[in-house]
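Lab notes, practical 5.
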Amino acid sequence: MAAVETTWDGLPVAQDKPMAVAVVVRRGSPPRTEYLLLHRAHEGPAYEGDWAWTTPAGARRPGEEPRRAAERELTEETGLRLPIAGPLEHVTDDVALFVAEAPADAEVRLDAEHDRFEWVTLEEGVRRCLPAVVGESLRIADAAPQAAG
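Output from the prediction step:
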């Protein structure tokens, strides 16, 4: 019997696709739309490589519906409780991609997994989010209509 994959904090990961969820959080409207990026703390504050900057995201637990997992990850990682839209068509079926609209005054409260956050332009987010599939999620969400609030 194969070992069950677990998250960094020891929780089991769903074995069926999508195994993960991501929520692109945006605020404002074109041409001044900004995207929320979180910096993962485990490699240290100076790390800028693969997976350093991401949208709120994480593993789906066994039996957990993707939308519920996305809502949970968004709240756990940022303290935000926002309506989400999706899933959106993504370049991978490993990740269910959602989008949320945040008010200008949204108060982000980070969990222990992250050491800082920034609101950035689409171009800056795509540049920072590595590997490229992570940045591509921002482009996909940017093309999605405004989510209902």
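Observations recorded by the TA: The chain has one domain: 20-143. The first helix runs from residue 66 to 78.
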